[in-house]
Amino acid sequence: QVQLLESGGGLAQVGDSLRLSCAASERTFSPITVAWFRQAPGKGRQFIGAFSENLHLNNNNAYVEESLKDRFSITGSGAEDTVWLQNTALKPEDTAIYYCAAVRGAVISTSSSSYNYWGQGTQVTVSS
C-alpha cells in the first residue's frame, strides 16, 4: 500500500512563491501518475495538474490545467519518489487544502475518482 505525504503548506502572503512536495512512503510502481488537487472551503475538489512517469520507457510528462499554468508548475523525480507543485505568485483564491493522489499507469486523468492513493492534504492559506 503506497502512502503519500504532502508537505510545504502553511501561511503565505499574496505574491509569495510556494512549493509543495508529495513523497511516497516506499518505492512506487511504474508507470505511475501523480496528480495534484485542491479543495477550497465550501467548494469541490479541483484538479490542478499531474506528473506521469514510465521508467521502462524512460519518459515522463507534466501537465497543468490551462487556467493555472501561468502560475503553477509540476515536476517530479522517480529516483526520489517525489512530485512537486510550484506556485510562483500566490493569490487569496489559492487558499485551500492541497492533495496529491496517485494511480498506476501513465494516462493523466482530471477526475479525482481515477486515483487510488491519496495523501492527507496540506493546508495553504494566503493572506492579503
Helix content: under 10%
- What value does the average pLDDT take? 93
Count of distinct strands? 11
Tell me the Rg in angstroms: 14 Å
Overall structural class, as computed from helix and strand content, comes to: mainly beta
Relative strand content: over 45%
Number of helices: 0
Q: Which residues form runs of ≥5 with pLDDT under 50?
A: none
Please state the overall shape, judged from the principal axes of the Cα atoms.
Answer: globular
Could you give the distance between the termini? 40 Å
What profile does the largest beta sheet have? 7 strands, mixed
Q: Secondary-structure element order, as H and E?
A: EEEEEEEEEEE
Give an overview in words.
Helix content is 0%, strand content 53%. The protein has 128 residues and is mainly beta. Strands 2, 4, 5, 6, 9, 10 and 11 form a seven-stranded mixed sheet that branches. A hairpin with a 4-residue loop joins strand 5 and strand 6.
